[in-house]
Amino acid sequence: MITGYNTDVQYDGVVYHVQTEDKGLRTPMILSLVYVGGEILAAKRAPYDDLIAGGFDEKILVQRLERQHKLICAAVHAGRIEELKRMSGRDAAPNASPVANESIQSEALPSGTEPTASQPEVSALSSDVHIDQHLFDGPLGVFLVDEPEFCGGSSVQLKVLVMRATTDGRRPAANVKVIVKTLSTAFSPGKVETSTDERGLATVPLKFPSFRSGRAAVLVQVELEGTHVELRRIIVPGN
User: Fold this and answer.
1) What's the average model confidence in pLDDT over 32-50?
2) Domain 122-234 carries which CATH code?
3) Which of 31, 41, 47, 157 has its CA 20 to 30 A from that of 124?
4) CB-based burial of residue 204 (10 Å sphere; 0-12 exposed, 13-18 middle, 19+ buried)?
5) Cβ-count burial of 110 within 10 angstroms (0-12 exposed, 13-18 middle, 19+ buried)?
């Protein structure tokens, strides 16, 4: 799984948040979401099974991810929201094309929409534990509740929510092992193991060492009945 992008794009007085992420080699897909006020308006899914079959090259995947993010940002900037919504319906269908919608491929990236290298915020989950189907399309989902800022030198309470798909809908996954790792080129790695409670929640206190240069991230890993899911967040250097 590689670092994704978050960009705010303004059109006609409305600020749209565009998020693009790699879902990882176990679910080889580039996913772009367009939000307004926490509501998902459109989604673009681009599988990259062909890249794996032809010999995985992370550089090519990074190029695809960045290109898709720029295309979605350009479409939003041009006011093509309804077109993105229609594209979402096509991408949700079986055997959807992995190539970005042809009608937006010629769009140039407008000024002010350059992607920033920060990991996408997968959810803005409230305590009522509502999960949007766009964010949970597999047998297992992992999310952050009341997501904090990840900054060097700070302390956070990481609230991890694990959900599973059942025959009668999506339900919290209790007694699931959760591994939280802190990885960095600037400080020694850390690892905490815990389990979810009956609500599918696990709380992990974390203290990030101060650093001014290098890279750092939080990695949350969950495994249930052979299904592996992970979630990554970038830790930014402290002031």
Assistant:
1) 86
2) 2.60.40.10
3) 47
4) middle
5) middle
